[in-house]
Amino acid sequence: MTITDNTLQLVRLENAGELHLDWQSVEEIVGAVLARVRARDAAHRIRSHVPPGLPLLRADPVLLAQLLENLLDNALKYTAGAIDLEVGTDGDAMEVRVADRGEGLRADSLAFEPFRRGDLGARRGSGLGLAVCRAIAQAHGGALAVSRRDGGGSVFSVRLPVVESPPVPEPA
User: Fold this and answer.
1) How many domains does the chain have?
2) Which residues are within 8 A (CB) of 53 and not within 5 positions of it... i.e. 6 or more apart?
3) Is 171 among the domain residues?
4) pTM, to two decimals
5) By the 8 A CB rule, do 109 and 69 touch?
6) Average pLDDT for 5-32
7) Which residues contact 150 (CB under 8 A, 6 or more apart)?
8) InterPro entries this protein is in (predicted)?
9) CATH number (domain holding residue 76)
């Protein structure tokens, strides 16, 4: 996305932009994103763990895919080692974690602020990616957080609410 596209999307999301919500399979969203991102990852550094049978999310699949793809692209850009993608549930929330072994951001980093690049200002970019990711998570009633990874690197955690999906009608 261009800087203009990211800026417009951030403004829309922060002003209660319209989401196209429907019941979504996280396994399918993750699979589609991994197919695109792995095509740009010649070293095959992304390791994923997505258990079967996860609950459906009421979400906008395009926005969730953008959030996940941006987190993975950032991890590929800022680390030379393996990147771990894990999805799981914790009570009434689903958590998607992207963990790398890069330089790492401080937990109090400004990276989530628009046009701020956190601690890694030497790299190219607009400084909007993580702000857009956080806005997408918040628009879905969730949150995006960063923490230091034991042994070095960062862990980006997206928590999204899991609500009971409607019953599936039985065939007649």
Assistant:
1) 1
2) none
3) no
4) 0.80
5) no
6) 73
7) none
8) HATPase_C_sf, HATPase_dom, His_kinase_dom, Sensor_HK_Regulatory, Sig_transdc_His_kin-like_C
9) 3.30.565.10
